[in-house]
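Ticket reopened. Same input as before:
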Amino acid sequence: AQSVSQHNHHVILSEAASLELGCNYSYGGTVNLFWYVQYPGQHLQLLLKYFSGDPLVKGIKGFEAEFIKSKFSFNLRKPSVQWSDTAEYFCAVNAQGKTSYDKVIFGPGTSLSVIP
Amino acid sequence: EAGVAQSPRYKIIEKRQSVAFWCNPISGHATLYWYQQILGQGPKLLIQFQNNGVVDDSQLPKDRFSAERLKGVDSTLKIQPAKLEDSAVYLCASSLIWGQGLSSYNEQFFGPGTRLTVL
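Engineering reply: fixed in the latest deploy. New output:
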C-alpha cells in the first residue's frame, strides 16, 4: 500500500535557523507531490507542489522543496525561518495511474516551533 | 474565487448522538473529499466522490458514518451514533483534476474544517 512518512514529529528552531523537513513516500509510479501548512487555528494551505519538470520547486513564503525520484523523497527547505513559520507541516502524495482515480495520501505531519 | 465552505465550524455532542456536517466545494470542482484529522495526525481520507458517485470509501466506518453528494455539488457527512474516538476535525476538500491517467494533475483545496468533540 502507498504510504508517506515524515522524518520528524516535532522540530524546534531559533529564528534565522535553516529548516529541512524530510518526506519519503512508497510508490514506484508517477506522483504529484505537495507540502501543506496548517497555522494554529487555521485550515490547511498549499505551500508548494510538484507535478513535473524541474525537481526543485519554489513555493510561497520562501519555502522550496526538492523531488529526488531515486530516493522517493520530497524534502521541504527554508534558509531562514521566522517565528511566523510556527505551524504543522504535512507532506502529501498523489499516486497516479494506480487506480481509475487519483488518491492523495498525507503524511503524519511535522510540528515546527520557531523560538524568537 | 470562493473557497470550500463548511458548516458548522464547531460541534459538541454526547456519545451515541447523531451529527451532520455540510460542505460546499469550489464551483466546477468535480471531485470532493472528506477527511478525518485526529489531533496530532495527518488527514485521513474517509470518502472521495467524483461528481455524485463514490470512488473510494475504503476507510469509512460504514456502520456509523455515511456521506452523500446527491446533485454532484455539495455534500453531507453524517455520524450516527457518535463515539468518543470520533472527536476530530472533519475536513472537506475539492479538486479539479485535469488530464488523464499518468498525465493527470490533482490539486486539492481545503475548507476550514468542522471540529467535533464527543463527550
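Chain B has one domain: 5-96+111-118. The mean pLDDT of chain B is 90. Please confirm and we'll close it.
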